Amino acid sequence: MSLQSVRDFFSARDLDLPIIELAVSTATVALAADAHGVEPGRIAKTLAFRLADGRVIILVARGDARIDNRKFRAAFGKGKMSPPEEVVELTGHPVGGVCPFGLAQPLAIYLDQSLQDFDEVLPAAGALHTAIRISPAQLAVVTKGEWVDVCRLRTP
Predict the structure, then answer these.
(1) Beta partners for 14?
(2) Cα(first)–Cα(last) distance of the chain, in Å?
(3) Cβ–Cβ < 8 Å for 88, 94
(4) Could you give the 3-state DSSP secondary structure of residue 72?
(5) Contacts of 83 by beta carbon, 8 Å cutoff, 6+ apart
(6) What is the distance of C-alpha 44 from the center of its chain?
(7) N or C: which end of the chain has fewer CB within 10 A?
């Protein structure tokens, strides 16, 4: 169902974005990076947050980035990651396949500027074994996402 909602989302917008379906799980950044043969940063992880005012937002960030709490509060106020059951309900996608396409409910989408370090990133496509290849600029257009600076890179 979730994968189909992504296909329908692309079809309704006449987007030629082939969905990569693999025989292995890509449910974590590490698994996805291995499966696609890319560095973890190129995996565009999609996270859902419930803000103090009750709104839920979607944040897409590079796979090796962490939320910087100070920056996050400055941009959105207080918030916390949504629990898995809420994520599935709001997005229609299983945790590990969550993406900013074909959402079950309209949600504000934000893209961390860390994604702009790459010419191409790989967000999931609604299932635990799927992804697409897309430029950060096209990702912003397709999702109507707003650029924010709320992450920091992990230190080794």
Answers:
(1) none
(2) 38
(3) yes
(4) helix
(5) none
(6) 5
(7) C
Beta-bridge partner residues of 125: none
Report the alpha-carbon distance of residue 41 to residue 60 in Å, rounded: 12
Q: Is 47 helix (H, G, I), strand (E, B) or coil?
A: strand
Q: Is 24 helix (H, G, I), strand (E, B) or coil?
A: coil
Contacts of 16 (CB under 8 A, 6+ apart): none
Q: Residue 96 — left, alpha, or beta (φ > 0 → left; ψ -120 to 50 → alpha)?
A: left
Q: What is the pTM of this model?
A: 0.94
**Quick one: which of 97, 115, 49, 98 has its CA closest to 76?**
49
Measured CA to CA, the distance from residue 59 to residue 128 in angstroms comes to 18
